[in-house]
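Re: duplicated header lines in exported structure tokens

Our pipeline writes sequence and tokens for each protein into one text file. With two proteins the header for the second block appears twice in some exports. Here is an export where it did not happen, for reference. First protein block:
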Amino acid sequence: MRPPIDDAAIMALRSELPEFEDRYLDLLDIYDEDLTPDIVLMELADFVANLVATRDMEAVLERCLAAVENLAAGTEEGPEIVAYAFFNEIPLGSREVVRSYLGPVSTHLAELMYRGESPEDITSRDGDEQARAEPAAKAAPSGSLTP
């Protein structure tokens, strides 16, 4: 068993979204010390889908997706957890509405997830391309127009 959840990102999410607190406490009752950020984000995805379906509380929806953006952009594990635990749980019928509220990092992650690419594939591909470009850039003579 893992210790009680004290993940800073989840604590920030809780402080930004008091409307989600009851759901978080329900999860804590169910999972106790086995509660993970993944589970919290899956529940947040359900909460967001309900907001979209009822077309209620637009300000709350906006804050939810701003919190998701902050998590994706602000932590090392953020992109992966947001992609797999949050975007993967958003129902098809809610995705377009959700996309209209996303910031740049979460928009990119949603596009990757919804077209079937994983964040790791993109990261490793980008890293390989950068690694191949660096030797070429170092080999270019000074004063050359090639980067």
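Second protein block, exported in the same file:
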Amino acid sequence: MTSKERILAAWEGKPVDHVPLIEDFNIPRAVEHAVSSPADVELMKYLYCPPGKEEEEWFEGRMNTVRPFAIEAGVPVQAWTGFGMDAVVWFTGTEKAVMMSMDEPKAFHALIDIITETDVARTALPDTPWEGIENLTAIWKKYR
């Protein structure tokens, strides 16, 4: 099931094969968010965690596919690796994020720590520089 098919099925109330942990539709439509109480925060480190070897290999393979195209076409490519407060809202819902920050500051800060640890690890993934980055920078400067 593709992302588009999953979203359309969910909108129609049909069963889907899974619900993505991070998805814009989760915020307004969730019956219950991943973090519904302070006790759920500790569990998030198992759902939202730094990438392992398999994810690192997948990412490197993906970049090896994208890199030649981006250099040839002269387009920059960005990997969105950090979610910060967006993740808090996805995991708790908008109102609960605000309320947790005031009513349960220890749980809120623990959730921020889990998200930050994962965001930093995800951001550190691409450790091989792109050979054509100078060309991409020159193109960006030309059009800004």
